[in-house]
């Protein structure tokens, strides 16, 4: 497995070793020992799958309190995936990292607790999977505006299809400090 540092403390791209031939391919989508060696020593307690059409943008979502770390990947299609460090006191607060996740590149993106996460679908549809370190908590559910100019995210589409919830999220600077995670070094 190849591990790629994103420059955001704890956020990583993981490229599994893929074994393929004329019949298809095989790869380990998760191996606790290898992930622990890469610095991801978390227990996943919820696994989700979503399917979205071209142009859909989901995010930027996070939970606080009760944050979730997410190990995300794409089973079908392709998405532009983004993580934003929103941990108060972090040296990379407000910085983002984006990566293309596709069914063909088999990449996994580790989005640590304390980060906001979102993605937009570039293929006709995409099937997206993620393992979470905490259960979904509706009371802790929160979000940040996908097109917050201060974040400088270069989304590959200008007019995405948004949920009503995602169209009403605040800018990062308008989120009360007590609704943001705290950086722990």
From TrEMBL:
Biological pathway:
Carbohydrate biosynthesis; dTDP-L-rhamnose biosynthesis
Q: Tell me the keywords, alphabetical order.
A: Isomerase
Per the record, the domain of life is: Bacteria
Point out the coiled-coil segments of this chain: none
User: Which reaction equation describes what this protein catalyses?
Assistant: dTDP-4-dehydro-6-deoxy-alpha-D-glucose = dTDP-4-dehydro-beta-L-rhamnose
Q: Which InterPro entries match?
A: RmlC-like, RmlC-like_jellyroll, RmlC_Cupin_sf
Q: What is its EC number?
A: 5.1.3.13
Question: Is Isomerase there in the keyword field?
Answer: yes
| Root EC class | isomerase
Q: Is Iron included in the keywords of this UniProt record? A: no
As for what it does, the entry says: Catalyzes the epimerization of the C3' and C5'positions of dTDP-6-deoxy-D-xylo-4-hexulose, forming dTDP-6-deoxy-L-lyxo-4-hexulose.
Q: Which family does it belong to?
A: Belongs to the dTDP-4-dehydrorhamnose 3,5-epimerase family.
How this chain assembles, per its entry, is: Homodimer.
What is the protein name stated in its UniProt record?
dTDP-4-dehydrorhamnose 3,5-epimerase
């Amino acid at each position: 497995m190849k591990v790629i540092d994103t420059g955001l403390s704890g956020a990583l791209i993981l490229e599994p070793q893929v074994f393929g031939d004329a019949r298809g391919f095989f790869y380990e989508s998760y191996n606790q020992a290898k992930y622990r060696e890469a610095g991801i020593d978390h227990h996943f307690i919820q696994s989700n799958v979503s399917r979205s059409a071209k142009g859909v943008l989901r995010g930027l979502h996070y939970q606080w309190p009760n944050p979730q770390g997410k190990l995300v990947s794409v089973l079908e299609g392709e998405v532009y995936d983004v993580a934003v460090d929103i941990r108060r006191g972090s040296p990379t607060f407000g910085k983002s990292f984006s990566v293309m996740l596709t069914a063909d590149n088999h990449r996994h993106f580790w989005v640590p607790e304390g980060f906001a996460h979102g993605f937009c679908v570039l293929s006709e549809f995409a099937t997206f999977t993620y393992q979470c370190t905490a259960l979904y908590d509706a009371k802790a559910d929160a979000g940040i505006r996908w097109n917050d100019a201060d974040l400088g995210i270069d989304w590959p589409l200008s007019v995405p299809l948004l949920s009503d919830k995602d169209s009403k999220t605040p800018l990062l600077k308008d989120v009360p400090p007590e609704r943001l995670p705290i950086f722990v070094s």
